[in-house]
Amino acid sequence: MEQIAVALQKIPVEQLQVGHYIQLDGSWKDYPFLFRSFKIKNKKQIKIIIDLGLKTISYDPAKSKVKAAKPEAPEKTVEAETPEPVAVAEETDKKAIQQAYQDRTRRLEKLKERRLSQHRCEKAFKNSVNNVNDLMGDMRAQPKETLVATEKLVDDIVSDAMGHQNTTMQLINIKGQDKNSHHHLVNITMLSLIVGKELGLDDLEMKQLGAGAMLHDLGKMKIQERIVRKTSPLNEIELRTYQMYPQYGAKLAKKHGNLDKEVIQIIEQHREHEDGTGFPNQLKSEQISKLSKIVAITAAYDDHCNSPRNKKQLTPYEAMSLMYSQTKYDENILSIFINRLGVYPPGTLVKLSDGSFAGVTGVNHDDLLNPQVILYDEEVPKDEAMIIELSEEKDLSVEEAVRRNEAPKEILAYMNFGGSMNYFIDPSANN
Fold it and tell me: Rounded to an integer, what distance in angstroms lies between the CA atom of residue 430 and that of residue 190?
């Protein structure tokens, strides 16, 4: 998908009319408006721009309702029949300008909070990944001690992240992750806990769910690495070998650990499907535990988006659409998962109704079609990019989701959407 160069024209501010689509120079934070580019809706906005001291302004003829920039006729600038006192007009203008600056201040405060949440979650996510890397590195030499330590780590995660009434899911983009990193274990654990909380699981079930999610790949230690990491199709023997890893994991857990049977069920059943097409035992719906069904969904989603074995990694939006169209997953749990991640899950690149690009960073659970997004603007540094709630913008909406391989590279780099999509729970944020 190629971006079409915008042919902007400069006009004197006195020629601005309602319907012109304008673009302000510099950062959106320099102006009392929510956007750097927008369509003029009323004369108050024109008055604010004039009061800013600007002499000329750029506008986009293609996006403007007004075909040409023409100065308004003098007789139209005065409403003769109902003249407005000058003092009242000036007071109205002052209120409009004051309101515009208040809106900008509010937006800056929300942006600051979002940046703090991002930093907080990235730090916590990296710490969790490092802890898991250390644990899994010890698994072969000290399996018993490692399983105990893993349970303790999960207990801490559950207590910290899920012990708060208000939690929100934060998108974490980390580029250049080491192939041996176990970030996907943390990712699946977090996604599973989010779903578990929505299902109303109790504390014990949440800890069992978290432990099962963290250990679901345990059996891959018994599979040759060349098979586990192979990106081309597996041959028949390789496929049969690979599909045994859930059973291998369950045996290891029983042999070396003192894990609840619910945790072992997750390790053994997380690749089973509702329709009986999964592995290793082709179980059907009623034979699969509820906690296993949760991890089946979150693990499949992460595989679609992030697995190195998947040459054509899907966008979060594509992964969700594919899973929804299949009969492999529990309908109720999948619906809850989709509701939590939204119609446009965090990490989805979208094209907006005004032609601009944005990256989805958060979910609006009251309006799934209008998520929180970060706007792409090549003139604004990405660490200053504006984050908006589409539900608050009447004239802006998602037009379509964009595949990463069809998006301009500079946009992917700006959004940091070129790496894997990870999620973490920020317990201190209100949703």
Answer: 17
The Cβ-side half-sphere exposure at 234, using a 13 Å CA radius, reads 17
Element (H, E) at 357: strand 357-362
Q: Rounded CA gap, 391 and 67, in Å?
A: 29
Tokens of 218: 């345990």
Q: Which two tokens stand for residue 225?
A: 């690495």
User: Which ranges of 20-85 does DSSP label H, i.e. alpha helix?
Assistant: 43-51
Separation CA 238–CA 417 (nearest Å): 32
Question: Could you tell me the domains of the chain?
Answer: 9-68+84-106 (no CATH), 119-426 (1.10.3210.10)
Tokens of 277: 């097409």
pLDDT along the chain (431 residues), means of 10: 63 89 80 80 84 86 73 49 53 71 78 80 87 90 93 89 67 63 89 93 95 96 92 94 97 93 98 97 97 98 82 82 94 93 89 89 86 86 83 87 84 79 70 46
Task: Using alpha carbons only, give the angle 369, 172, 137 rounded to the nearest 5 degrees.
Answer: 140
Nearest residue to 216 via CA among 132, 323, 325, 276: 132
DSSP string covering 175-186? -S--TT--HHHH
